[in-house]
């Protein structure tokens, strides 16, 4: 079976200033490769500064890589830092849903803006699409007239999810989207994500520090350390026998 | 004797048209050398309790209590000046987000030096700066920072979150307080640093017999090293008691839901299967239900739940529920 997302030897360097005229390069990602099948979850773990957030931002197109390819369903979408297709199929969910939604717009405005910019739908179709998406994430159609502050913590996470899946993506990137939530809200969100995965075959890239969630949700696991992929494999196998010392240390606590 | 003994602590916010009761009759007691944890989700008032104890709430909040005893002294009846002195000497608090709670315009050394007590220094004033530097270095070593010269000479934004948190702990233990209140010390940190901070707090508790009041929303990571556990929901204390009892045989539906919702404690849970979750979300403070505040979300709710449940004591394990869960 063809993997839905394939990343080959991705590299990213940041320029940092060193002295007055010189600059130094800091390598955030070095030769990171992985593939992700339909309906599966890849977890990315690592310490701070290991490049896991950079990876998420590059995948979603918020940043450009330096070298390497990203393939979506066999098609190259990013080649050596050039985004060929501005992909609607890879969507990012941010860490704090409350801060990532515009407080002065209703949910309908927020969601229809995305549709206006990315699709050819007319107004009625947009409205139907918004209603349908809100129902999918467990909200009601009436919620489209609400503002972000009128929702509680669990509902706002659903709105953020609705914003991510409204373009029918194939892959969702969750950048620490679950770790700041309260336990009961987190359990609800995890249930919702898993049921969406079962129903419409979404794939997730889960960037997190929460090991029990990694164990519960993910099929494969990628451990990053200072930009290098030190371990990559099936989650269950890695948890039982990680090869490198770094990996063992990260997984043991 | 109890180090800290709080009875019926109530914290209210007067909004003009009506009074919101954010914390409702909470009891809490702590012996010397014990680690207790306050667990609850956001909006349950756990940080408010800590702030009320420290006396840092502004005057919009009304704090009433039958008693807040600190080693036999009633803090409610002390004049503010005396209370401030006593608390400043004996209770220290670590705040939630270290990098935003440290002063961004001052170097770490200046901030630590500020919290080192004057009484411990000797000699003339020109000799004291060197002593402060030595103290600050020793404090940093104590919390496990090895590169002390670099850290002392940097601003908070130049350091990582974990190091900032350790600096906060160093500042808190500078006066060697009897009680350390840690308000979500590890939420922003990744797993290895989190383990380090917990190890540090544990060793402070064991070596200096410092009492610790941990505030957290993760029940799972606390159970194996705390002596007592207090579970809060929307400002009501739903269950309190020794950690082993509360964790091993929860009697309140909310505690049970908290334990069951985390994948750590369900080893038998199938991969990618549904997690246990209560229906609905946490009500906002403006729209609190009457009676038991868990009522509308509780799977066992019955007619009696519209009345506020009294706390029942089962051998030191208190539960505020009309229908406590029976033992398995």
Task: Please describe what this structure looks like.
Chain A is built from nine helices and eleven strands. With 253 residues, chain A is an alpha/beta fold. Chain A has a six-stranded mixed β-sheet, sandwiched between helices. A five-stranded antiparallel β-sheet of chain A has the order 2-1-4-5-6. The longest helix of chain A is centred in the last third of the chain and has 18 residues. In chain A, 43% of the residues are buried. The mean pLDDT of chain A is 84. The mean pLDDT of chain B is 83. Helices cover 30% and strands 23% of the residues of chain B. In chain B, the strands form two sheets. An eight-stranded mixed β-sheet of chain B has the order 7-8-9-3-10-11-13-12, with helices on both faces. In chain B, strands 1, 2, 4, 5 and 6 form a five-stranded antiparallel β-sheet that branches. In chain B, a hairpin with a 2-residue loop joins strand 12 and strand 13. Classes of the chains: A alpha/beta (253), B alpha/beta (328).
């Amino acid at each position: 079976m063809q993997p839905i997302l394939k990343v080959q030897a991705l590299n990213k360097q940041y320029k940092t200033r060193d002295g007055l005229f010189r600059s130094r390069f800091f390598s955030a990602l070095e030769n990171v490769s992985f593939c992700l099948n339909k309906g599966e979850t890849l977890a990315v773990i690592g310490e701070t500064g290991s490049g896991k957030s950079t990876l998420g931002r590059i995948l979603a197109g918020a940043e450009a890589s330096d070298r390497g390819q990203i393939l979506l369903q066999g098609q190259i979408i990013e080649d050596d830092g050039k985004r060929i297709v501005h992909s609607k199929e890879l969507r990012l969910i941010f860490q704090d849903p409350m801060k990532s939604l515009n407080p002065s717009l209703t949910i309908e405005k927020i969601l229809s803006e995305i549709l206006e910019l990315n699709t050819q739908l007319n107004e009625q179709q947009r409205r139907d699409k918004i209603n349908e998406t809100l129902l999918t994430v467990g909200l009601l159609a009436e919620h489209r007239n609400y503002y972000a502050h009128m929702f509680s913590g669990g509902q706002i996470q659903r709105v953020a999810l609705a914003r991510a899946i409204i373009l029918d993506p194939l892959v969702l990137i969750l950048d620490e989207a679950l770790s700041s939530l309260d336990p009961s809200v987190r359990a609800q969100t995890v249930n919702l994500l898993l049921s969406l995965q079962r129903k419409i075959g979404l794939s997730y890239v889960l960037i997190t520090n929460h090991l029990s969630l990694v164990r519960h949700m993910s099929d494969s696991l990628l451990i990053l350390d200072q930009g290098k992929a030190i371990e990559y494999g099936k989650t269950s196998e890695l948890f039982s026998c990680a090869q490198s010392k770094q990996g063992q240390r990260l997984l043991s606590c | 004797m109890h180090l800290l003994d709080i009875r019926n602590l109530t914290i209210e916010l007067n909004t003009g048209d009506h009074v919101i009761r954010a914390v409702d009759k909470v009891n809490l007691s702590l012996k010397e050398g014990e680690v207790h944890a306050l667990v609850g989700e956001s909006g349950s008032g756990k940080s408010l309790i800590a702030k009320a104890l420290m006396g840092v709430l502004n005057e919009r909040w009304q704090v009433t209590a039958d008693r807040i005893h600190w080693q036999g002294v009633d803090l409610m009846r002390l004049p503010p000046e005396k209370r401030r002195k006593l608390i400043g000497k004996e209770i220290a608090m670590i705040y939630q987000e270290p990098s935003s709670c440290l002063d961004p315009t001052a170097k770490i050394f200046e901030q630590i030096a500020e919290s080192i007590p004057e009484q411990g220094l000797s000699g003339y004033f020109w000799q004291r700066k060197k002593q402060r530097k030595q103290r600050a270095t020793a404090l940093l070593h104590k919390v496990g920072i090895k590169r002390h010269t670099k850290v002392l000479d940097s601003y908070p934004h130049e350091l990582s979150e974990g190091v900032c948190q350790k600096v906060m702990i160093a500042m808190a233990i500078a006066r060697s307080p009897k009680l350390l209140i840690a308000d979500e010390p590890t939420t922003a940190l990744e797993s290895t640093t989190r383990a380090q901070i917990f190890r540090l707090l544990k060793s402070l508790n064991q070596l200096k017999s410092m009492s610790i009041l941990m505030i957290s929303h993760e029940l799972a990571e606390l159970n194996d090293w705390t002596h007592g556990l207090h579970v809060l929901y929307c400002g009501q204390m739903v269950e309190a008691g020794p950690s082993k009892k509360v964790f091993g045989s929860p009697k309140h539906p909310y505690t049970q839901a908290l334990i069951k919702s985390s994948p750590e404690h369900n080893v038998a849970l199938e991969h990618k299967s549904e997690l246990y979750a209560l229906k609905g979300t946490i009500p906002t403070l403006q729209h609190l239900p009457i009676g038991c505040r868990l009522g509308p979300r509780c799977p066992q709710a019955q007619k009696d739940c519209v009345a506020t449940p009294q706390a029942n004591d089962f051998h030191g394990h208190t539960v505020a529920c009309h229908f406590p869960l029976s033992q398995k």
